């Protein structure tokens, strides 16, 4: 069926435009301790959803039920529901093809050496002049410089060194989590026969301005799925790793506390304390760093929160009416914040363990969908929460009120974390569409959208780490991305890029 058959029916076309009209939503305005900036959406970094219209909007031809209009061939094609081996032309396949084409285009644009800043008229020369004239406060100057650096980040593929060079990594990265110094990154990889393997990568910033990566000697395999991990400080900072393992078949789930030294053959020291706690099907875990409960960790289960003393084994349980999918302890007080499948976020003060019923719940508020991540800021009056509707909000805990929203994140049903770097004033999140987005923490502006170097898929969602000192005290600032079987470094420092470019 040709598109020309429908020309001249202007009433239908106008009705189609009205049906797809979607007025923009007004952005929340607020006033708190962060400095305000411009509007909350980027001018040159459109989200993948707005960068390319939908099927019905990409062509002025009317949409017919059961048909797809191909603008290149100027004709309609019949659609079949779901997947069909005889005719692969399905709506899902068409959308996937368009998304892949959009990813390739954005990846080509991302490779360009010069990129516009997210704020119109913002460049380092003008910013420096305004600073010398006293027109820009010091805090605003630092924040805007960070935004310029984010806009200029470029991708470099890292080669992971290993003592066993004969067996390169052939398993997809699932999760990477850095320690507090960003010298070590705990990795979880899916394996072909089921289950996963895990180990530690060591990072080091070299004097010539490059970054070296070395995989640990010992890798451990398990037939169980890793639901959640976090670093734990038992004998010294980040001395152990806490893993939540899901049971499979006759193998029950558990929570394991493993010493980091266990993963290196070259370490002459004893491995240290190794514990396994009989806690099955834990969705989340968190380690407390507050001195009042510094050997305690929490696990979030179905309708239950368990706080355990890692040394004595003593437990305190809290019954709730939902699954606890995200947890984090505050630093200034032994207070645990929990995010639930119902969208509820609540706190537990470990100093009030004697309370019965639901009287132990402190702050309590809700988002519209299941919570996938909670992050407490250094000022523990503020909390960032993300949910499965793709909403990321900044909450003022004193008023139990959302004071900022970060637009553009994409999530429908996945368990996706958010990352906060307050030193650089950045918020990061990887969406279910496999795009990595960076926002200004203070005013919510979307600073950059980074497409994945690999085709998008549910098994190839990138896992990221951002640090001001990746590799320790002499490390380099930037973004670390693990996707598929590869590891990438997005340099936050323009000098690193120029040096690498010169060497190339």
Brief synopsis:
About 15% of the residues lie in helices and about 35% in strands. The chain has helices at about 10-20, 50, 90-110, 125-130, 140-150, 495-504, and strands at about 65-70, 75-80, 155-160, 160, 175-180, 185-190, 195-205, 210-215, 220, 225-230, 240-245, 255-260, 275, 285, 295-310, 315-330, 335-340, 345-350, 360-365, 370-375, 380-385, 390-395, 400-405, 420, 425-430, 435-440, 445-450, 465-470, 475-485, 485-490.
Low-confidence stretches: 1-59, 497-504
Rg (CA only): 25 Å
Average pLDDT figure: 80
Total helix count? 6
Envelope shape: globular
Intertermini distance: 53 Å
Judged by helices, strands and strand pairing, the structural class is mainly beta
Number of strands: 30
- In terms of DSSP E residues, the strand content is 35-45%
Biggest β-sheet, characterized?
Answer: 6 strands, mixed
The level of helicity is: 10-25%
Describe this structure in words.
The chain is mainly beta. Helix content is 13%, strand content 37%. It is built from six helices and 30 strands. The chain has helices at residues 10-19, 48-51, 91-110, 124-132, 138-151, 494-503; strands spanning 67-70, 75-78, 154-158, 160-161, 173-178, 184-190, 196-205, 211-215, 220-222, 225-232, 240-246, 254-259, 275-277, 284-287, 296-309, 315-329, 335-340, 344-349, 361-366, 371-376, 382-387, 392-396, 401-406, 418-421, 426-430, 436-440, 446-450, 463-470, 476-483, 486-491. Strands 4, 5, 6, 7, 8 and 9 form a six-stranded mixed sheet that branches. A hairpin with a 7-residue loop joins strand 11 (240-246) and strand 12 (254-259). Helix 4 packs antiparallel against helix 5. The longest helix has 20 residues, at 91-110. It is globular. Residues 1-59 and 497-504 have low confidence and may be disordered.
């Amino acid at each position: 069926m040709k598109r020309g058959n429908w020309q001249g029916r202007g009433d239908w076309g106008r009705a189609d435009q009205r049906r797809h009209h979607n007025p923009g939503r007004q952005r929340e305005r607020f006033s708190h301790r962060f400095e305000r900036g411009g509007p909350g959406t980027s001018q040159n970094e459109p989200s993948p959803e707005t960068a390319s219209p939908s099927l019905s909007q990409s062509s002025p031809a009317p949409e017919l039920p059961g048909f797809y209009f191909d603008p290149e061939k100027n004709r309609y094609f019949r659609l079949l529901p779901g997947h069909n081996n005889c005719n692969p032309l399905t709506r899902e396949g068409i959308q996937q093809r368009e998304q892949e084409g959009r990813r390739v285009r954005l990846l080509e644009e991302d490779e360009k050496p010069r990129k516009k800043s997210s704020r119109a008229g913002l460049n380092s020369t003008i910013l420096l002049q305004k600073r010398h004239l006293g027109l820009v406060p010091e805090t605003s100057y630092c924040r805007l410089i960070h935004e310029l650096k984010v806009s200029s980040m470029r991708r470099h593929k890292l080669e992971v060194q290993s003592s066993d060079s004969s067996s390169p990594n052939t398993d997809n990265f699932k999760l990477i989590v850095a320690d507090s110094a960003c010298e070590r990154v705990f990795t979880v990889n899916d394996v072909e026969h089921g289950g996963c393997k895990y180990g530690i990568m060591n990072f080091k910033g070299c004097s010539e301005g490059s970054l070296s990566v070395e995989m640990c000697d010992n890798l451990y395999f398990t037939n169980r799925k890793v639901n959640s991990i976090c670093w734990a400080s038992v004998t010294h900072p980040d001395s152990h790793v806490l893993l939540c393992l899901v049971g499979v078949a006759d193998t029950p789930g558990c929570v394991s506390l493993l010493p980091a030294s266990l993963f290196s053959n070259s370490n002459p020291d004893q491995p240290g304390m190794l514990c396994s706690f009989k806690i099955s099907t834990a969705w989340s875990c968190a380690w407390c760093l507050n001195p009042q409960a510094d050997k305690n960790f929490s696990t979030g289960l179905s309708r239950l929160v368990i706080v355990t003393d890692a040394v004595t084994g003593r437990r305190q349980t809290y019954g709730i009416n939902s699954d606890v999918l995200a947890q984090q302890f505050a630093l200034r007080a032994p207070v645990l914040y929990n995010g639930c499948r119902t969208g509820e976020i609540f706190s537990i003060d470990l100093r009030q363990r004697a309370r019965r019923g639901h009287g132990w719940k402190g702050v309590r508020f809700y988002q519209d969908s299941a919570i996938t991540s909670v992050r407490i800021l250094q000022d523990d009056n503020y909390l960032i929460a993300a949910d499965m509707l793709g909403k990321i909000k900044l909450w003022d805990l004193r008023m139990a009120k959302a004071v900022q929203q970060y637009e553009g994140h994409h999530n429908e049903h996945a368990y996706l974390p958010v990352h906060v770097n307050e030193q650089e004033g950045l918020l990061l999140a990887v969406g279910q569409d496999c795009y990595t987005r960076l926002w200004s923490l203070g005013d919510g502006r979307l600073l950059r959208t980074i497409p994945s170097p690999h085709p998008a898929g549910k098994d190839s969602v990138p896992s990221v780490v951002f640090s001001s000192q990746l590799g320790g005290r002499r490390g380099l600032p930037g973004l670390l991305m693990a996707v598929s079987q590869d590891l990438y470094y997005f340099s936050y420092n323009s000098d690193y890029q120029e040096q690498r470019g010169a060497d190339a």
